[in-house]
Amino acid sequence: MRNFLAAGAALLFTVPGPAAAMEIKTAPSGYVLAHEANPGKGYFDLMAQTIVIHNDENAPVTLGALQIDVMGDTGEVLSKTVKPDAAARQTRKFAGMAAQGLRVFLNAQLLNVEGLAGIAGAGAELADGTTLAPGEAALSTSHYFATDFHPASVAITVSYYGESGAAKTARLTLPVRMHASPIVYSAPLKGAWRISGFPNLRSHHRFIPSNEFALDFFSTGPGGVLDQGAKRDPSDDYGYGAPVLAAADGEVVFIIDGQTQDPDALSRREGESVEDARARITQYQFQRFAEDFRAAATGNLIVLRHEAGGSVEYSSYGHLKEESIAVKLGDKVRKGDVMASVGNTGDSTLTHLHFQLNAGSDPFFSRSLPVAFDNGEPLYIGEEPGYFMIFSE
Length: 393
Known about the structure:
Blueprint: E1 23-27, E2 32-35, E3 44-54, E4 61-72, E5 77-82, H1 84-99, H2 103-109, H3 116-120, E6 125-126, E7 131-132, E8 136-147, E9 151-161, E10 167-178, E11 194-196, E12 215-218, E13 243-245, E14 250-256, H4 274-291, H5 293-298, E15 300-308, E16 311-320, E17 332-333, E18 338-341, E19 353-358, E20 368-369
Parallel strand pairs: 2-10, 6-8
Antiparallel strand pairs: 1-3, 2-3, 3-8, 4-5, 4-7, 4-9, 9-10, 11-12, 12-19, 13-18, 14-15, 14-17, 15-16, 16-19, 19-20
Helix pairs in contact: 1-2
């Protein structure tokens, strides 16, 4: 899942010259969120999610290296260099998806419903290589850093060359923040649930700006299994139909309802190879995304608006069971109120609840926020949540 554009304050430097400046923009903009995955252990991690390099000059330019520096409170620096060919490959990937009718994936990565035009201005297009014509842009995404110091800022420096071969640089510096919400959240479910997709390097959520800190809740049966083996009926999955609770007092501001799931389309068929099943399911999902991105991603969905201490945040509850939503737009809910049931609609092949916090009301196009629950009791031994695994004999 994916509401994201804030006006960023860019600190921009260029070598003196007659042309206009190369622009560096980011999504999310304005600042970078750091995360303390293991509090008290002395390290932090953060993502520089999406970097847009836009040629705002009146002549073509050629990209040089992109350097990202994470700087600490007391002068520490952790750096990463991205070669221009790597940025060009990523740019072509998003351009290719756009050409297939899936421009919405680019827009989501930019946290902007208008896509590149909303970031870099009308007429902006993605470049096809390391040379950017006037108005063209290149992208570099998903830059992960783990530091043993408290990060204070992130500096992004782009080197490039004008038509004459003159070397130039552009630089953008963003502050790093830790998120501390005055809103107190409780878990959106009761009982014991396996939490997956929490914000670590293995999470499929982590590299998407709108759900970087999202969580997936799965129920398990004996031995940690997630279903009873019959994959044609979602009711065979553990947790199907469990009550979904409001995580905090709030107001219902967005709903997607009426979505159903076709388990046959998302399951491997008799006699079908794993490779053929994967290709067929991927094509089916891409077609759904092209038709209705939001519904295809989340299925049935509820978004709540919360406010406390002058802060406003939004919680989302996705993949809800068919015909289970018991609230309507404008309803006021209290923490713990039952709003729907756990299901597997949308981009889901196994029953679970997708939960996330965002800074904006559109969970597809706004900054993701980390969440802490006031009523969680760990059921694992030790300090790491770990993963359920089955080992063959």
